[in-house]
Every structure is written in structure tokens, then in C-alpha cells.
Amino acid sequence: MKGSIRRRGLAAVAAVLAAGVVAASCSSGDDGSTASESTPDEATAEWLEGADAEWDAVMEEAREEGTVVVAGPAPLADAMTEAFKADTGIDLEWVGGSGSDLSSRFETEVRAGHASIDLLFGGGNELETLLPDGLLEPIKPQLILPSVQEGPNWREGTWHWYDNAGQYLFQGTTYVFGYVTVNGDMVDASAIETWDDLLDPEYKGKIIAYDPRSNGPGQGAVGAMALALDYPYLEQLFTEQDVTFVADNDQLAQAVARGDQPIALALIQQQIEKFVAEGINLEVVLPEPMPGYLTPGFGVVRQAKGAPHPAAAQVFLNWYASKNGQQTYQDVMLESSNRLDTDKSKLPDYTVPQEGVDYLNDGLSEDYYVTDRKVVIEQVTELIGGR
User: Fold this and answer.
1) Which residues lie closer than 8 Å to 106 by C-beta, 6 or more apart?
2) Residue 209: left (phi > 0), alpha (psi -120 to 50), or beta?
3) Structural domain count, the chain
4) Which of 23, 44, 323, 347 is the most exposed place for a label (fewest CB within 10 A)?
5) Separation between Cα atoms, residue 268 and residue 292, nearest integer Å
6) How far is CA 106 from CA 297, 304, 370, in A?
């Protein structure tokens, strides 16, 4: 596979996982009704086709609750809030922040019995914290709409879960991550064909990475690198190349865009494409022998035990699993939906799995997350210490 893919704009590419069409959003008429009554025409809303009396009862309770509180990446706030309101008539309060901060707040509140957040988007941290203690609400039995059921609309014909029970951490997305991003005005991307090339003394002090000590994309990246390249490679890279670590996606993107550190590890595609659209010459490199790995990214959702708005949370879960919800999330985060009927033409080509490539799957199971991946993160944390 090519070692470098040049990114000058949002490329239109055919997704390997198949493509559908963008769902047409439905909006309610302006008839002077209250917010709780200003719902779309449920008879014509595609995602609500086949809804029965059970769903009607959930919607009635959700309207009485009035809102749902969801935490996740800040860039999703406007799109998710507006689309959910248009499709359901229910208010969505979006709490944005870093994965580490949101996960910590979520856990603290749930353990105290005072959850203010209904649902949390992120990785798999709760596999080790809240799930073993029975502090997450099962999601699977709440997915009741006909349009979200398992079958031909889903990759491999099934829902995907991070937890072994297949109940609690619902995966909406799967895509390729774990690449190298360079500022093409300062670094020759074609010179980085393998991961060993990053060990060249020329790059000392020029590499920045998402901090693997913090919940976020850095942890998945180092886990995959350790398994594919061996842990001694990470030791050499982090100790000899004077790598800078940050726990903020914006800060990471700005550093490589400005050229402060022109090589970035674990920079998410949403940030890459934002700067590319502004004319910054960022290039993505897929070095051998690990040209990325598969991950659900931030697209994993879980529900707090004792969620303050349980009915509205159930409405959101069904909406997120629908074509409308998946399209909205995918278009902002550029993470490929596990639904096959979303329009994937705007996804960056470097995020699309390539035929014939045997990828490590970071979201394959709870077992990997709490064993091999955890061990690597603990080793790396000890290695880089308080840097």
C-alpha cells in the first residue's frame, strides 16, 4: 500500500464498507406549539417507520422529561443538538470536553448516585471502571425501533459492542486510525515509509503525540504500535526522539500545523481535515508494517445507571443507531458508520479499510482492552513518567 496519501481537501472516495444515501431530515411545522409538542411528522420520518405503541409511550415520557444530557467530543455539539431536536422535538444538552475529563466526571457522579449526564461517548474506559461494578445501564434491550434492528443495514449484519456481554457499550463506528501526520512544508512525507524511519536522528524533537497517559486516541495508538512493532520500539521512539506529549486534540493539531513539531502521532482525522480545508499542507502517512489499525474511535456510547432522563436517553440511543443519527455523527467526526446505508463519500480515504490488509482491531473485544492494551499503557506510563 502507498506509504503516503496527500491531503489537499476532502476527497470523495468510495468506501469499502459500502455506501448508501444521506437521510433526508424531517422538520416540524411552525404551528405555535410548545417545544415538547413540536415533533416531526412521525408517519413520514424514515427512521420512525414501523414504530409501535411501545415507542409512543417512550416518546411521551421523553417529552415530559424535556431533555437528554449527552457528553462527548465538543465538535459534535451543534450538529447533534440541531439534528436530534429536528427529528424528535426533544432538547439535547451537549457536554463537550476531553475524553479523560468527561470519563472522570461521568464515573464520579455515577458512583455518588448523582448522575447529571445520561449518555457518554468515548472509548472503552468504563470497561474497567463502571461496568464491573454494575453501574452502566444495558443498551441492547432499549434499541426497539424497526429501522435500527440488526440485519442488512449493518456491517456484518449485526450490532457491534465493546463489552463481551454485548449489552452496554454500543459501537456506532469502525475506521482506520494510527497513522502519522506531517506538515508537508517541513517534512518530506515520502521519506517515512516504515515506522523505523521515525527513529532517524533528523526527527529528534520534531514529533508530538497525544498523551497515552490520558484517555483518548493516544492510548489506542500506543497499544496497536506495541503489538505490531513490539514494545522496545516504543521505548526507543519515546526516549531517544524527545517526543512531546499533549492531551488535547486542538493543541496537537495546531502544533503540527504551525510546524512547532511537524510530525504528529494519534492526530484525529476531524482535526486534520479542518486544517487541510484551511489550506495547511498536512499529509497522512501509513507506514509499514502497521498501516493503521481499526477502532471505534469516539463512537462508543454508554448509559449511566440512574440516568436523570432515562426515556429521553432511550430516544437518543435509537436515534443514534438510526441512519439519521449515524449520518450526523459520521459527517462531523469523519468516523465511518457501522451502518451501510450512510453516505460515506466525504470520508478521508486514509480512514477507509483497504482490501487485503490485516488490521489489528482495537474495538474487537473487552478482553483486549483490559489485558494487552492495558499492560502496554501501564508500561508506557512508567516509561515517560511525569514528562
Assistant:
1) 71, 115, 117, 120, 126, 130, 304
2) beta
3) 2
4) 44
5) 12
6) 18, 8, 19
How far apart are the C-alpha atoms of 108 and 155, rounded to whole Å? 34
Residue in 315, 328, 322 with CA at minimum distance from that of residue 63: 315
Q: Which domain holds residue 317?
A: 20-174+297-335
Q: Provide the total of helices (H) and of strands (E) in the chain, helices listed first.
A: 11, 15
98 and 124 assigned to the same domain: yes
Neighbours of 253 (CB within 10 A): 23
Based on the fold, state whether residues 63 and 148 are members of the same structural domain. yes
Q: Which of 125, 107, 129 is nearest to 220 (CA)?
A: 125
